[in-house]
Amino acid sequence: MDGEPFHESFKTKPLADRFRARLLRAADKGEPFDTVTGLPDSLRGGEAALSFLELAVKYVDARWAEASAKQRDSMTDALATVVPALVKPGRGRLGPKVLRRALRSYVLPVPRRERERPEEIVAAARWIEKASLPLAELQEIARAHEVIDALSRRLDGKPAAMQTYRRRRAVVFNVLEYAVELEHLPSNPLARVRRKRGKRAVQEVDRRVVVNPRQARELLTAVTYVGGYDRASGRRLRAFFGCLYYAAMRPGEALGLRRSDCTLPASGWGRIELAETRPTAGKAWTDSGEAHDRRGLKQRARGEVRIVPIPPPLVRLLREHVKEFGTAKDGRLFASERGNVIAASSYSRVWKQTRELALTPHQVSSVLAFRPYDLRHAGVSQWLNSGVPAPEVAARAGHSVDVLLKIYAKCIDGQEKEMNDRIMQGLEEGGGPTD
């Protein structure tokens, strides 16, 4: 800087010390200093001083087209959580709710950036653009810890669920890896953080939610009494719930099932060839603007098919369903009265009423088959307890064998007495101890 003095004022001594430390660190790294501002590249304006918000927008731009609707949702959720935490100190900070709304609904999602913005959103976006920290500052380990702290908390300041934290951390880690790839950072700051939030628990299925075959049949009968004859809401969903139990399908897979995917003979076993899923994602994240995304099967290559043999009870349910309700225009078996994809709130509401009809008051107040998804758990557990080899069960359910054995190795409801009897029989046959 050729002996030219430069001055910068700070309100507190710690702020001045932090700025001095950044200057010394830049000098140690050999960064060029601007002769006009006296600042190193990492602290002056321009490409070298890319802000974390700008990086987040770049990352979303690069990933949006290929990301599923749920991935888009997760991506913007994580970034809207951490961007407001990485800001310069100063007055004028807005509330967390308006900042999050601005990021999630206007600044980050690619198709929503051109929407007309209310005044409070304009102010929030302007503030966060000015306040967002230069990316280079994340090389400080204290900043990396601030990222972890932000990801660990909900909007109200309470601890976030472990699954939420891990999902958000994975997104931010990938964003910073992208910065390394673009050579904006020498390394990923989060890779240096060794702090852990407890051990990662295996997401085992609670055996209390799993119905036995008799209970499943009673539930599938009870659903036909829900909704009245004219609306036929329960009857329209009977085969849908049957797919979740007898074929262990995910709800999104059943919603995407077409008549052409099914082989339904007049008697005996049939077959389903699953190729598509319609997961609930929200209109903001799908390309179509519909609430359901349209994707290939979970954890499978695009175009890959999963073949599931289906037992005669499900074959009958599907044949009866087609005879009474036909199919949607695109061939889907399960559609609303208007032909749309059935909303999760609709089939969940019918399921709630079904439980009240089929189960005892004690069971209704329990977690037994609390969600429609629990029918899938029951179906997989029934296969395992029937002696079907784990690799075959995994193939039919769309799991890896490892995940299957960790999550679904559960006995179905109602088998406890049978298990106890087997244990007693073994104890009695074993005889007493020898002297």
- Name the helicity range: 40-55%
Question: Given the helix and strand composition, which structural class is it?
Answer: mainly alpha
Largest sheet: 3 strands, antiparallel
Shape: elongated
Number of helices: 17
| Number of separate domains | 2
Reading the helices and strands in chain order gives HHHHHHHHHHEEEHHHHHHH
CATH uppermost class of the largest domain: Mainly Alpha
CATH topology label of the largest domain: hpI Integrase, Chain A
How do the strands of the widest beta sheet line up side by side? 1-2-3
Radius of gyration, rounded?
Answer: 28 Å
What is the name of the CATH architecture of the largest domain? Orthogonal Bundle
Beta-strand content bin: under 5%
Task: Name the features.
46% helix, mainly alpha, 2 domains, 3-stranded antiparallel β-sheet, 435 residues, elongated, hpI Integrase, Chain A
What does this structure look like?
The protein is an all-alpha fold. It has two domains: 51-192, no CATH class; 208-417, Intergrase catalytic core (hpI Integrase, Chain A, Orthogonal Bundle), CATH 1.10.443.10. It is 46% helix and 3% strand. Strands 1-2-3 form a three-stranded antiparallel β-sheet. Residues 206-421 form the Tyr recombinase domain. Keywords: DNA recombination. GO terms for molecular function: DNA binding. This is Integrase.
